[in-house]
Every structure is written in C-alpha cells, then in structure tokens.
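Running this now, will post back.
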Amino acid sequence: MALFGKSNTTSRALIRNGTDKPLLLIFEPWCWTHELAPNAQLVCEATSPRPGLLEVEYTKDAVTVHAWDACVGRVLDPRGVLIESLDIRVPDFIGLDEARAKKAR
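Update: finished.
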C-alpha cells in the first residue's frame, strides 16, 4: 500500500558531466553531494505520495537537483544499481498546512 493511502509519484533525472573537469552534484534537501568525474553520469530519483517533479539547476561548477514535499530519494548508476538511499522523508509541508487549516475550522 502506498504511503498515505495514495499512489506514489516517482521522478528521475539523469545527470551527466559533459565537461573535462569534475562537477559537484548536489541532491537537495538531503544535502547529498558527489563529485561527478568528466563524462560520468548518475540518476537522481525521488518518490512521494504528493505529485511533483525533480527540478534541476545548473551552474558553472555544480548541478543541484531539488526534490519536493514528502519525498524519499535514491541515487543510482546508469544501469540502475543503487549508489545511495536517501530514506529520510522530506517533510510534507502541504499536509501540515492542510491539517492546520482543518484544525482552525
């Protein structure tokens, strides 16, 4: 059974370092970091009972992948082999706001 009695949404982002220098990969909100070697790639994945998509932000020296409310995360190699399990769930801020609104009625 899915969390909260709902089906889960999963979003994946393939991050590839197409440069000739190491690139810092950051997966938020877990503050997970990895130095991605030139031409290396990893997959960031987030799953949540809330709908959403990963957001990817590029800068000169880093790529930051942002998850959304109530997610757990995973980092995989391109073949799908688990590199890191980020199973500390992101707080469900939407759910907290909904609960506060019900309580205030």
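The chain has a mean pLDDT of 90. More later if anyone needs it.
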